[in-house]
Amino acid sequence: MDMETIKQWFTLDSILSLLEQYRSFGVLPGIAATLLESFFPILPMFVFVMANAAAFGLWKGFLISWLGASLGSLIVFWLTRKVGQKRFFHFVRRHPKVRQFMHWIERHGFGPLFLLYCFPFTPSALVNIVAGLSRISRQQFVLAVLLGKMIMVFTISFIGYDLKALIHQPLRTAMIAAVVLLLWYAGKRVEARFSLTEEQGGEEGGE
């Protein structure tokens, strides 16, 4: 099976067709799709959220996607906390990048996690695992997930709710594109900030 075939499975039309096919299951397929992305980051969260909004309407689709995405992150965090002492996670903990990310989260707490979850391009599966390995409190993590995912999911849902309007209303399309670019830029700034913190930590450790 080649990559092109796999990509065809995860187009907006394909996901909408699947949601229609399993409509008898109600909102469960929509919740399951966004939940599974927390375990398998290769899955296209952007497409799942847009499909839910197009299939169920803006507000219902938003709630379905937000519930699935938040539950997925919380489950991964909880599982990591439960099995974080296993041999595999000892190896992960020793990785320099993972350790630096863990310490960054522990030092800054809620703020950076909230920002990361706001961005639609964040590899949330990785963030969930590293947060679970860190010593951040459950309360801080839950709040960061619920609020950050709320912003991210609503932004994507708004885009996916009326795709025709994106074509026929160029001003609205430009505004949405500006928001997406702003989120992307903000995500890069957070990433750069993290890299700067890493470098400073390395310099201090070498002195």
Sum up the structure in keywords.
207 residues, mainly alpha, 12 helices, globular, VTT_dom, transmembrane helix, transmembrane, TMEM64
Give the overall pLDDT as a whole number.
76
N-to-C SSE string, H for helix and E for strand: HHHHHHHHHHHH
What is the first-to-last residue Cα distance? Answer: 52 Å
The number of helices is 12
Task: List low-pLDDT spans.
Answer: none
Give the overall shape, derived from the CA principal axes. Answer: globular
> Sheet bearing the most strands, described?
none
Beta-strand percentage range: under 5%
Strand pairing plus helix content: what structural class? mainly alpha
How would you characterize the overall build of this protein?
The protein has 207 residues and is mainly alpha-helical. The protein has a domain of 134 residues. It has twelve helices and no strands. α2 packs across α4. The longest helix is centred in the last third of the chain and has 37 residues. 31% of the residues are buried. It is found in: Cell membrane. Keywords: Cell membrane, Membrane, Transmembrane, Transmembrane helix. Its main location: membrane. One of its GO terms (cellular component) is plasma membrane. Belongs to the TVP38/TMEM64 family.
Topology:
Layout: H1 3-9, H2 12-21, H3 28-36, H4 45-56, H5 58-83, H6 87-94, H7 96-108, H8 110-118, H9 124-133, H10 138-161, H11 163-168, H12 170-206
Helix pairs in contact: 2-4, 3-5, 4-5, 4-10, 5-9, 5-10, 7-12, 8-10
Short description:
With 207 residues, the protein is mostly helical. The chain has a domain at 29-162.
